[in-house]
Amino acid sequence: MRPETEALIVIDMQNDFCPGGALAVPGGDEVIGRINALMAEFGCVVLTQDWHPADHSSFAANHSGAAPYSLIEMPYGPQVLWPTHCVQGSQGAAFHPDLRTDPAQMIIRKGFRPQIDSYSAFFENDKTTATGLEGYLRDRGITALTVVGLAEDFCVAYSAIDAANLGFAVTLLQGACRAIDLNGSLVQSRHDLQAAGVVLAA
Ligand code: VGL
Ligand code: ZN
After folding, report:
1. Is 151 in the pocket of ligand 1 (CB under 6 A)?
2. Is 150 helix (H, G, I), strand (E, B) or coil?
3. Could you give the CA distance from residue 60 to residue 108 in angstroms, rounded to a whole number?
4. What is the arithmetic mean of pLDDT over 166-183?
């Protein structure tokens, strides 16, 4: 078992990010077995769920004429427009059926405000609106995080970088992640992770 000060953060292991889903990450389901096994090592397990209203501003379908994967400028900065995904209560938003959810003590939902996206489990994309996860982890005396899940170059990377900036010791297990890799986002995210002091491990 890991020390009580360590938590496992499992990002967005949902049907829509797995093969057959609306925003499928290649090989997304391949990491489920490893993640299930990892959960047994940690006394604190947190799952996140991307959880959007149907009218969410990150959906290309809600911007007339906009193509999926194009960029728009939002008040908080550039935003990729995604295919409609992880709509609250839908099958796509549910956890993959093979993911063990019983060991999770906390499930944090993000991206529920129509006007702002939230890649990170800690802050929405304006970098100031907090999700509450920091407070939960600090109240439990957690100081070190292992971060895994989907997608490595978006929600996993944003979560890991925010956590490192908040002062947590953060390890990202690349073998327990899969990436979208949009316009060089995977190389960029690895650069940003290293600059933030996140340890990249296999
Ligand atoms: C994600 C794009 C949009 C992710 C979520 O989980 O990485 N990516 N929403
Ligand atoms: Zn999303």
Report:
1. yes
2. strand
3. 25
4. 98
Q: Is 86 a catalytic residue?
A: no
pTM for this prediction? 0.98
**Ligand 1 within 6 A of CB of 155:** yes
Please enumerate in sequence order all residues whose Cβ is within 8 A of that of 39, keeping only pairs 6 or more positions apart, or say none. 8, 10, 45, 100, 103, 104
Q: What digits encode the pLDDT tens for the residues 49-67?
A: 999 999 999 999 999 999 9
Tell me: the pLDDT tens digits for 82-110? 999 999 999 999 999 999 999 999 999 99
Helix (H), strand (E) at residue 156: none
Q: Is 153 in the pocket of ligand 1 (CB under 6 A)?
A: no
Active site residue 44: no
Pocket test residue of 14, 155, 193 for ligand 1, highest count of atoms within 8 A of CB: 155
Selecting among 16, 18, 50, 110, the annotated active-site residue is 110
Q: Which of 40, 31, 51 is nearest to 172 (CA)?
A: 31
